[in-house]
Amino acid sequence: MSECEKRLDALAATVARLRQELAESQEAAETRALVGIATGILVERGHGGPTEAAHHLEELAEAAGLPLPELAADIVNGAAGDEVAAAFSRPSTSSDDGGQHTSPAVLRLRSAEAGALTEDPQSVVDTLIEQVLAPLGASAVALWTVTSGGALALAGHAGFPRGEASRWRYVPPGVGVPAQRVVAERHPQWFGQMPAEVPGIGKRHGSDGARAVLPAELAGRILGVLEVCWPHPRPPLPAPVGRQLNALADLCAHTLPDSQATAAGPAEDPVVPENALMDLADGLLDPVLVLRPLLDEHDHVVDFAIAYVNERFADPAGRPRSMITGLRLLEAYPLAAREGGLYEHVLRVHATGEPFRAERTALTTLADDRSITGIATVGIGRYGDAVLLSWRLENEAARLAALLEHVQRLGRIGGFQQDVISGEILWDSQLFSLFGRPPTAAPVPLERLAEHAHPDDSVAIGRFLRTLLHHRHSASTAFRLRRTDGAMRHMRVVAEPVADPAGRLLAVRGAYQDFSTQHWTEVALAATRDKLADTEQQAEERNRLALQLQRAIMPSSPAPVDITGLHVAVRYRPAEEGHLVGGDWYDAVVLPGKKVLLAVGDVAGHGIEAATGMVVLRNALRGLAATGCGPAQLLGWLNSVAHHLTEHVTATVVCGIYDPVTQTLRWARAGHPPPVLIRDGEATALPLPGGILLGAVAEARYEEHRIDLSSGDRLMMYTDGLIERRDTSVEKSLEQLLAIAGAAPPELGEHLDLLLTHARSDTDDDTCLIGIDVN
Fold first, then answer.
1. Where is the ANTAR domain (predicted)?
2. pLDDT digits 0-9 by tens, 571-583
3. Using one digit for the tens of pLDDT, what is the confidence trace for 110-139?
4. pTM (two decimals)
5. Domains of the chain
6. Which of 5, 221, 316, 646 is 20 to 30 A from 323 (CA-CA)?
7. CB distance 586 to 768 below 8 Å
8. Rounded to whole angstroms, how far apart are CA atoms 316 and 696?
9. Are 481 and 491 in contact (CB under 8 A)?
10. In terms of DSSP H, where are the helices of 65-205?
């Protein structure tokens, strides 16, 4: 073996020996702490002083035949009031003599508790993971210190991969890690499995199993957070184990910064002497209460003592500061205990250290059995173990000033005052914003206002200044402001002179208002009005032309005519609204073969488009009828005209060809109501042949019916304006028409007038009606 290898072996042996000595020393320290806790319990139970209690503990161990650490653990376990060790490991084991020995889990648990009172944070974490948490299956643990503003600092860690701790050495406020959630909500949290969206230490290395996150509290303050990690998801821990973990977290608080000052607790005497904290309160301009926490036997905060009140204190109930000093917070202000009230905010600030501030908070106090509410701005901050509570009550002047400020902001108004003698100019903050100038810039004097305005407005500004400064009358004017940022704003300035009793001008005060939004709104409205008027004029002209075109082709009541064995009368009633010129039309013309074309149609829509569409279809039907084809063929061709040769015109038509020789009527329809035949005083609707309205499809087929007419028969053809109603079906309206048409007067024109008079249509549509008597 070489000399180098011998040196390495000797070094390794030395390291191993030092490690063993360190482990033994740590175990001895934990044992001494555990024995010390048990001795303290015996002193508390009346077994003399510490020396007598220590001797008594040794005698008990010797009499019971137990090692001193095991007996000390039993005493501490009994004083704890629960059997949490059973949840950690197996039950107590029996000795050879039949006695019960404390289990190794209990020793590990109590040793960890004792170590938490004597070691630094990193040593405590190492002890916890080795003695207590590893038997529970935990793989890692982190101990956080809560710093100012809700930030976290990693005080100790174990079980995380190399380099992970350095990444999480400091966590800024607002990151949302589990420890920060626990600080904000002030109670433990259990994650059966870490959510994917929640960041946390160790997550990128697969540590997304279960986690227990527990606040480390001491004297009512959350000094840190204990975070225990399991490698895999798991159900919640048993209740006893959870309680013990909470206790261990609180023990960890003793090792964190500021724990010694907190453990000292509040002073028993509420009259606190002058010190740095009181000097700080006296140096503030607002009323300040210095509060110190009052703890119960479990170190829980039950209230706060008002330890000091500075000279600027103003009580909402009007009580002097001497009456408030020394009281409890809930005693002085019992209504502060309401949910979400002042006491809850004080408690949270004391526990977490995060400051609180709120404007326009209602402070309600009791005075002579009645509640008094004041509006105040409240600020709460923690200074060491104490809490500083300050508020500023709003008086009438402050409320009116705040109201005026909001009114100026909403109305975009800024006030000014200019001293004529000294030249001093006073602007409010809103006016600097309106002019686009920083608050540090010099205000613009009235005499130089024209330099900041559009050149075209200089005359109006000059007239305003002459009226104000020379004639000493109130004046106002509007101008366009050129701001330093290049924007052009429309402004209005109103001012009045201020004079002394002798009439000498002392100052000018007034206000500027930015009415750019109103100006551009008025410009837009004016442009809209002009456009609307132009549109209305165009629409009126179009309707007038459409009405003229319609009346030229479709006179309202043409004289009755006799056509080869037929007596024909027509009535046309336009829509009630003048702008609703429709596309209803009719035709009765003798064809080259002495046959008669009878047609009634209705083009969809209103206005010039409907009128021109009516002209196209009427003239096209006349031309197609000259071919001598039947009505079904004519409608097929007319459908092609409507679909291909017009601008999306659709229409309904009923078309008939009457042969005076045979007195036969061949007819077809395209989506139109049926003609009505009146024979021997009875009116009936002709059966409907099939046929879709014109223009709906490119190719359409139409059926044709034939009816033999006799002398004395009367036939009515009409558009839907005669029968349509909004609240009645077409079938019912047709029945009403047949009932009226059956009681027919002998003269055809009177019959048509009767039908128009009793027509009950309410759709503002045109009505076209043709009556045909067979001679």
1. 15-76
2. 888 765 555 567 8
3. 555 555 555 578 888 888 888 888 888 899
4. 0.42
5. 133-263 (3.30.450.40), 265-393 (3.30.450.20), 399-514 (3.30.450.20), 553-774 (3.60.40.10)
6. 221
7. yes
8. 81
9. yes
10. 68-80, 85-88, 104-116, 121-128, 164-167, 178-185
